[in-house]
Amino acid sequence: MSSNAPLEEFPEDGWSRVLAVVAHPDDLEYGAAGAIARWTRMGREVAYLLASKGEAGMDDTPPETAGPLRVQEQIESAAVVGVTDVEFLDHPDGLIEHTVELRRDIAAAIRRHRPDIIVTINHHPHWGPGFLNMADHRNLGNAVFDAVRDASNRWLFTDLGLEPWSGVQKVLVAGSPNATHAVDITDTLDAAIESLSKHAAYLTSLGDHGMSDPEEFLTTMALQTGQRFGARRATSFEVFNM
């Protein structure tokens, strides 16, 4: 699909619960949080599941300090967009693997939350031409697709003591180079900017490798996406029917 192709509007009827599953604190704040803020304002239930605590993500801060700091920043960031249910797993930041254990953890969360919609991070090898993706994102994203099916199979992970859930309608991939749909975030862009800004220590740690201004970054991204979506400020997803 051409990167200039028009984006379809993501349908916002027929579902009420969302589970966002990503690898690290801050993964959702580079665009998806604007859609999440819109949905929570509509009364939709949204929960976050993070595979790691992001403890290896700050070069100037040791993991034992960075982990708790990034957890707190993520909790505060999620609250800005109306999410208070935030769970962190203990898969090692930077070394997340596509294992049965990871699938089991995600399947358990799916069975607990019983979502209609799953949001995850780009699982493709690249973000776009010339920009390679990292292993944590690739492995986590692919494990999500497997876990959706695992969660629906009552003969898998029976030790969890949780009823199977086959109600996931769609998986939405944020940051995908193959985006198919978009969500209008005109009214929630400010919340998205504030949500990303809550990761202040992490963004400062990135220095020249990160961004100096979350407002400029997210506004530019929303306007670029909007060029494929009726000139509205928007965030995009690749949508898979399950």
Describe the structure.
It is a single chain. This protein has 242 residues and is of the alpha/beta class. It has one domain: 3-Layer(aba) Sandwich (Rossmann fold). Helices cover 37% and strands 19% of the residues. The chain has helices at 32-41, 63-80, 100-113, 135-152, 189-197, 200-206, 214-226, and strands at 8-9, 17-22, 45-50, 85-88, 117-121, 126-128, 131-132, 170-174, 181-184, 234-241. The strands form 2 sheets. It has an 8-stranded mixed sheet with strand order 1-9-10-8-5-2-3-4, with helices on both faces. It has a two-stranded antiparallel sheet with strand order 6-7. Helix 3 crosses helix 4 (135-152). The longest helix is centred in the first third of the chain and has 18 residues, at 63-80. It is globular, with a radius of gyration of 17 Å. The two termini are 20 Å apart. The model has no long low-confidence stretch (mean pLDDT 95). This is LmbE family protein. Keywords: Zinc. InterPro entries: GlcNAc_PI_deacetylase-related, LmbE-like_dom_sf. One of its GO terms (molecular function) is hydrolase activity, acting on carbon-nitrogen (but not peptide) bonds, in linear amides. It comes from Stackebrandtia nassauensis (strain DSM 44728 / CIP 108903 / NRRL B-16338 / NBRC 102104 / LLR-40K-21).
